[in-house]
Amino acid sequence: MKYCYECGRITAGVPRYCQFCGRTYDVKLCPRRHENPRFAEVCSQCGSRELSTPQPKVSFLWKVMEFLARVIVGAFIVYVLLSFVYGMVTTPRTGDALMALGILLCALLVLWTMLPDCFKGLVRRSLGKGGRRDDR
Fold it and tell me: What pLDDT score does 135 carry?
């Protein structure tokens, strides 16, 4: 997965360009899809001058801060999940809590299946999973 610093969206897999804004990731591509460095003016293999526009260059410090933010958020989520599981295990009414959790998850699944596709796409896009794929 790659994050586009131009449009702020994530493209799944190992893409060469952003599926949403069309910017390439740290390289320039010619119409024949030859990879060239971001500072190239002409394709090194076919000589084409029609090169793609790469996403904006991001500093090393920003990438480190982004990595640390992901680690901190991930650690917080793991902490919340572990504390929830620990609380369920240590309470004497664990069976009731598990049954309530199961009913809640089933209700959420039923509600999700009843939503129109446009709302499902909106939720997926807001979570960064992309609702619609544009082939460019």
Answer: 42
